[in-house]
Amino acid sequence: MPQDKPPSSDDPSRAAFASALRMLALRDLSEAQLRERLQRKNFPPDAVDAALARLTQEGAIDDRRTAVSRARTELFVRGRGRMRVLQQLRAIGIAPETAEEALADAIGDLDETTLVERALNRRFRGRVVRFEDQAEFRRLYRYLAGQGFSASAIIPVLRARSRRNFEPQDDT
C-alpha cells in the first residue's frame, strides 16, 4: 500500500495539526490512533509530537472522552459485554486504567445481567425466544461469551429463557 505524502507546507507541524483536525472532524480518535495516522501520512516525528501536544492542550483530543464514547457505542449500540469493550478500548490505544474508568462511567448503574438481556433482545429483534434443547443453550452461551459477557451473567439469563433447567457443559 503506497504511503501518503504530507501536504506541502513551510511548517510540517502546522500541516500535521491541520490534518489531525480534519481527521477529528470525522470522528473522535484516541491519541494513539491520531499518531499512527499522521505517521502513515509521512509527517516527521517532531511535527506529529508538536501537533498532538497542541491538540491535547486545546482539548481537541482527550483519550478519556474518546474511551467513554467508544464504550457507550460498544455497550448500547453493538451489544457488547465488559470484556469485549475493554479489548476494543485497548485496541485503539487507550491506557488500561483509563479504559476501566471509562467503562465504569459508560455502564453507570446497569448490571451485566441487564446488558445480557439487551444483547439477546437485539439478537432476536425484540422477540422473547424460549428454547428447549441443550444445543440451543450452548449456542447462545457461546454467542454471548464471544460478545464479552461473563458466565455469571449469561447463565441466569439463559436459564430464565429456557423451558428446562440446562447447565453449560465443559465444552462451552
Structure, explained:
This protein is mainly alpha-helical. The protein has 3 domains: 12-57; 63-107; 112-161. Helix content is 65%, strand content 0%. The protein has 9 helices and no strands. Helix 1 (12-26) packs across helix 3, helix 2 packs antiparallel against helix 3 and helix 4 crosses helix 6. The protein is elongated, with a radius of gyration of 21 Å.
Features:
3 domains; mainly alpha; elongated; 172 residues; single chain
State Rg: 21 Å
Helix amount, in percent?
Answer: 55-70%
Largest sheet: none
Uncertain residue segments: none
Helix-strand makeup class: mainly alpha
What best-fitting shape do the alpha-carbon axes yield? elongated
Number of strands: 0
Mean pLDDT: 87
- Rounded to the nearest angstrom, the distance between the terminal CA atoms is 41 Å
* Count of discrete domains: 3
Strand content: under 5%
Count of helix runs = 9
What's the helix-strand series? Answer: HHHHHHHHH
Topology:
Blueprint: H1 12-26, H2 31-40, H3 45-57, H4 63-77, H5 82-91, H6 96-107, H7 112-123, H8 134-146, H9 151-161
Helix pairs in contact: 1-3, 2-3, 4-5, 4-6, 5-6, 7-9, 8-9
Structure at a glance:
The protein has helices spanning 12-26, 31-40, 45-57, 63-77, 82-91, 96-107, 112-123, 134-146, 151-161.
